[in-house]
Amino acid sequence: MPATPAPRQTLAVLAALPLLALTACGYGSQAVENKEQAIAGAAKVDGLDSVSIGYFGNVTHATALVGRHEKLFQKELGGTLAKYVTFNAGPSAIEALNSGSVDIAWIGPSPAINGYVKSAGKNLRIISGSASGGVKLVVNPKKIKSLKDVKGKRIATPQLGNTQDVAFLNWAAEQGWKVDAESGKGDVSVVRTDNKIAPDAYKSGSIDGAWVPEPTASKLVAEGAKVLLDEADLWPDKKFVITNVVVSQSFLKEHPQAVEAVLRASVKTNRWIEANPDKAKAAANAQLKADTGKPLPADVIDPAWKSFQVTDDPLAATLNTEAEHAVKAGLLEQPDLNGIYDLAPLNKVLKAEGEPAVDDAGLGVK
């Protein structure tokens, strides 16, 4: 299968995905001041002075937020300093991974697919899952009272070709509605709207609803919108990937012990989140405040926190399905995703923790 995008706005568009849009939507990254310190007297993992970890400032990156705030990454890295970079958009995260300025990153499915395919499978590997769910169709209840009422309305998605955009186009097609993917015009109008301005667009009446990730969905609900559909209800077992952990192939090859240390911290963080949901929510919000200057209000973070689940499983079959939806929408040529996963380090960590292995759906390194 070809690993090149179609000549239109395909994968380059897909790069800016959902997870980018919850604090800011411009391209770029921010090196957050590191208050962390390597553990004095502890050995350096793989002899490294530091490991650079990237993530987005939103709740579906809870593993990274909580793991940082609770110093769980630093604990596993010992004498190697955990350094952090926050991102606003998928393309900048991929660029940082390619340049080596970030070693490991929490990122969504579309930029992971994009980065892998555009490099002909040479620049990254998905090494773990991190979160499932956290996406909703929220609407103005005065204008839309049922799913069939969505026809003829203006529905926002974060960006042309991003994960939520593809999901909404696929859902609309399943209703029998015709929509031109690139223009967004058709039986329903798809209005590509940065998540940071979606609440204002909703208040002004320029959109009638939105298919968006958390916490944007809950921000809209706080403005009076109602949840019409939870995307999780459309997936088997109500699970689909929203956040993955990726690593540059060169870093994975040269520093396997460091990769295992970060994965061990990720797994332990997920167990801590599951065991301490309220403390974890507070920790995530505290880290958001440190990263962005302000925490999410209770009427936003409380429902947002309940709408997703942390997971070590990358839910590989759902990544493949998401790619198929993009192909069906006409935004992507059939990609070759063989080799996008290397779950051997994660499964080694899971075995040591007494947990079951996870599967790559046949898309792993051969």
Quick rundown:
With 366 residues, the chain is an alpha/beta fold. It has helices spanning 10-14, 62-69, 72-77, 90-99, 109-118, 163-174, 198-204, 216-222, 249-254, 256-275, 277-292, 298-306, 316-329, 344-352, and strands at residues 29-31, 50-56, 81-87, 104-107, 124-133, 135-139, 154-157, 189-192, 209-213, 226-230, 241-248, 308-310. The chain has 14 helices and 12 strands.
Strand content: 15-25%
**Silhouette:** globular
Using the CA coordinates, give the radius of gyration. Answer: 20 Å
Count of helical segments? 14
The main sheet orders its strands as: 1-3-2-4-11-5-12
Number of E strands: 12
> What does the largest sheet look like?
7 strands, mixed
Mean pLDDT score, rounded? 89
Structural class, from secondary structure content?
Answer: alpha/beta
Span between N and C termini?
Answer: 17 Å
Helix coverage percent: 25-40%
Give me the strand/helix succession.
Answer: HEEHHEHEHEEEHEHEHEEHHHHEHH
- Runs with pLDDT <50, length 5+? 1-29
Tell me about this structure:
This protein is 38% helix and 18% strand. The chain is an alpha/beta fold and 366 residues long. The protein has a 7-stranded mixed beta sheet with strand order 1-3-2-4-11-5-12, with helices on both faces. Strands 8-7-9-6-10 form a 5-stranded mixed beta sheet, sandwiched between helices. The protein is globular and about 65 Å long.
